[in-house]
Amino acid sequence: MNLFEFFDAVDDSRYNSDKDVTAYEIDGDTRKSRITLEMLNQLRHHVQARREEKQVSQELYQKMYGGSVADAAELA
To answer: With 90 as the cut, is the pLDDT of residue 68 above it?
Structure first.
């Protein structure tokens, strides 16, 4: 496995702080910011991307560290 494969695997579905447009005014406004449907949708996409990454990692770990064919064979 090459080092560049790690960097190529990261795509745009992850959180990007450059796209964060949340503006907070701390002058005296103590109310919480409202969560919009767009924010919820972005959060859902982040969670989904994280789940997909975890699934791929688990499959890779199973291939790397899973038992061999000889280990899986039952004794007669």
So the answer is: no
**pTM, entire model:** 0.49
- 52 Cβ partners below 8 Å, 6+ apart? 13
**Phi, psi values for residue 15, rounded to 5°:** -65, 135
Asked whether residue 33 is assigned to any structural domain, the reply reads: no
Q: What share of the chain is helix, strand, coil (3-state, %, to 5)?
A: 55, 0, 45
Task: Give the span between the Cα atoms of 32 and 43, in whole angstroms.
Answer: 17
Q: Tell me, yes or no, whether 72 lies in a domain.
A: no
Task: Provide the residue range defining the domain that includes 21.
Answer: 3-27+40-65
